Amino acid sequence: MKIVSKSLVILGLSIGALLTSCSEEEILEDLTGGCIAINAIENYSAALERYGNDPSVENCESLKAASIAYLSALDDCPLIEDADLEEALRDASETNCED
After folding, report:
1. Number of domains present in the structure of the chain
2. What is the spatial distance between Cα 23 and Cα 59, in angstroms, rounded to a whole number?
3. How many of the other CB atoms lie within 10 Å of CB of 73?
4. Could you tell me the pTM of the whole model?
5. PROSITE patterns, per this entry (predicted)?
């Protein structure tokens, strides 16, 4: 059975909820003080959608990579606690996509 970490699911749901209620610019300001690249969010969101529609190993690996890239983009953001980011990166890196 594929295991997608709780942090990845929560992150995806949070972004999804925010995307439906705020403009993209407001989301970036609220989440990170405006210090994240838009394409990191778009790539993560697309990978999350692909995995949701087809939870294959390939899509899981894509989601894992997009998660790590997104979290890495948060590294210099003043609103993100280093310990929280390290934990999320560790969880994303340890995601098991194998059956």
Report:
1. 1
2. 27
3. 19
4. 0.65
5. PROKAR_LIPOPROTEIN
Evaluate whether residue 70 is within a structural domain.
yes
Nearest to 96 by CA among 55, 44, 49, 35: 55
56 token code pair:
């294959």
**Cβ burial 77-94 (10 Å sphere, 16+ → b, else e):** eeebeeeeeeebbebbee
> How many CB atoms are closer than 10 A to CB 57?
11
Tokens of 4: 């997608």
Model confidence pLDDT, tens digit, residues 25-61: 565 566 556 666 678 888 999 999 999 999 999 999 9
> Would 98 be classed as within a structural domain?
no
